Amino acid sequence: MATTPGIKLTCTHDGCEARTVARRLCRAHYQAAWKAGELDRHEKLPPRARKHDFVCPPDHKHADAATCFIQHQCRCDPCCAAHSARETTRRKLQAYGRWDSGLVDVAPVREHLLMLGEHGIGYKRVAQLAGFKSSTPVRTIIWGRQDPGPRYGEMQKRVKRETAEKILAIQPTIENMAGGAKVPALGTHRRIKALVARGWSLSKLARRLDMELGNFWTLLQRDQVLAATHRRMVEIYEDLWDQEPPHDEWHSKAAYTRTLNYARKRHWLPPLAWDDIDDPAEHPELEVVKQGRATADEVLDDVEFLLAGGEAPLQVAAIVGRKPATLAKLAERHGRTEISNVFGALAQRRAA
Fold this sequence. Notes:
The chain is mainly alpha-helical. The protein is 51% helix and 3% strand. The protein has helices at residues 27-36, 67-70, 77-96, 107-118, 123-130, 136-143, 161-168, 186-197, 202-208, 213-219, 227-240, 250-265, 286-291, 296-308, 313-320, 324-333, 337-351, and strands spanning 103-105, 158-160, 182-184, 224-226.
């Protein structure tokens, strides 16, 4: 840093050529003068000249952050007092081995963002899910600084821990994808076919999806669908999987029978045929389904009986042939709160 012209930077003590630290004395002579109580006899150095004439904005909150003191070189009393307190705390914590800058390595965060991008979750969507006001923090991690200036393109080495935790918490699931992203259509197709096997006609499902019947039929031929369409179909399936459409009067009864026959001819499986309807590896056997599966109430009664007999929840799930998460959801749908709580907690522990 520049100094005032004419100021000697070596110790003013006779015969000493060491660099000054304060009051134009070197460290050793400064300590000697301090012990002798003679510091007042030595002249203070004039203040150092600033690098530039940048003036701190008047509306800036001076003592709340280090920006004013370090970047703007503001030397008002609040800025100086706050900087001194921060430095004292930092040195003390470093001496105790407890110093934490609040920054972490950015490399794992950047790799996670690139992985999310490969799964169709872009940086703007990540910023939205993480709750950031803008996408700039995420964009900077991936491509470096984009603001014009000498630091353009500079890659970050560290990032705030809070920012890293929010980004790393985002997983590549369909629920996190943007509505326009494309996802495999398998789960959507299975849900549509399962509802048709329950008597819900394609026209009724198309109206619930706000689609024309022709477009809805085309949807069944595609390998991919929009994430928004998949999520909407999941909501419809959750509402209708355990219900039959109204078929009291002759017209609706004819449509109901026609829909069941339509699904039966194509060997479409009902909702209860699936343990995990989104699992590509699951292929229920049609003959087993035809023989009849236990109803939801029968399954839950068996679960309640086994739990009352002292069986562990995980063992009960294995006995009835259902996953803990499946049992929790099934119990919740049928108002069996105690069973839902037991297997919901078990599913969360296994997921963790």
